[in-house]
Amino acid sequence: MDVLDILEIESEVSLPKRYSELSTQEMEARIREIKEKFGDRLFLPGHHYQKDEVIQFADARGDSLKLAQICASMDKAEFIAFCGVHFMAETADMLTRPDQKVILPDMRAGCSMADMADIEQTERGWTKMQEIWGDTILPLTYVNSTAAIKSFVGKHGGACVTSGNAKKMLEWAFTQNERILFLPDQHLGRNTAFDIGVQLHEMAVYAPLTNSFEYTGNFEDVKVILWKGHCSVHEKFNINHIENLRKNKPETKIIVHPECTYDVVQASDYAGSTNYIIEMLEAAEPGSKWAIGTEMNLVNRLASEHPDKEIESLNPFMCPCLTMNRIDLAHLLWSLEKLEEGEVVNQIKVPDEVANYAVLSLERMLERS
Fold first, then answer.
1. Global pTM?
2. What is the DSSP letter of 202?
3. Domain check: are 49 and 19 in the same one?
4. Side-chain half-sphere exposure of 92, counting CA atoms within 13 A
5. Could you report the per-residue pLDDT of 186-210, keeping only the tens digit for each?
6. Which domain holds residue 224?
7. Residues 159 and 195 in one domain
8. CATH code of the domain containing 248
9. Chain centroid offset of residue 6 CA
10. Which residue, of 88, 183, 258, 287, has the fewest CB within 10 Å?
11. According to DSSP H, which parts of 15-85 are helical?
12. Does 129 fall in a domain?
């Protein structure tokens, strides 16, 4: 039995049956009542990928880092119910005061990409890389990673990156060392490195499960080492989707997230972070047509918020991210009612020895963003 199975069992046990018997209207009314009762003492950040039923209660919307930074500015908030996933709640905990309590309404809410790089694999891989390249490597990690990975990167002189500042951070990293290890998303790493002039033959993929490299060239030519991880949602967009759109709807502009594969990004009209996608759609001309390669909840929300434009998913059969969508009304209400009773459930607390270096990796990024 793996950790996810255990967390799922714990979550199912801790959620009383009565929540499944409540109507949507009853749950929504109770959440509003509790939010009003707590006032400034309770803050609910909501990630862009959350369900509409949850995002309607968010005090702020944004990507993971933006929300964590907003949490850090909420001086009056005693409790932060993070409507996102585990690594986001970890970051919020690390950037807020020790007396502020961050909770995750459903402990099953995670990120499959972040889970593709654990600290044991990373330390083992780092040892192998040191044997090949010595001290010529600087690690960078996408914020979609665990606190332990952020801590590892911070300890070894590296920094975090977001999809919005990855280019700037990669350029900075090359002023610090000869080679870069990019965790845990190979696609964001590859797309960003190529964007700043690193050629594909200068990138090697490290496969953590086999502790080996997927590379046939000369190791001396390697400039970027890509961790073999990916987003299970963004990797489902493929070149066939683009070709079909070009053929059947040639007037449609295609915009994708850089977590998509290299060929998809190259074949699209635009590629950028979640905020970039949102801003592009807000600025788009009325009547324009768009196909978006990112998480379905966000695509549907953008379509609803911009009825003057034709917006669809690049993959018409795409499903929402299963782990990103774990939090629902029942779990949100349950966690808030527990707070009302004086009990903090599902608190996310990062140990100080991990948080210290992890915060350092975040600070190195924030100084340059």
1. 0.90
2. G
3. yes
4. 35
5. 999 999 999 999 999 999 999 999 9
6. 114-232
7. yes
8. 3.40.50.10800
9. 22
10. 287
11. 24-38, 52-55, 64-73
12. yes
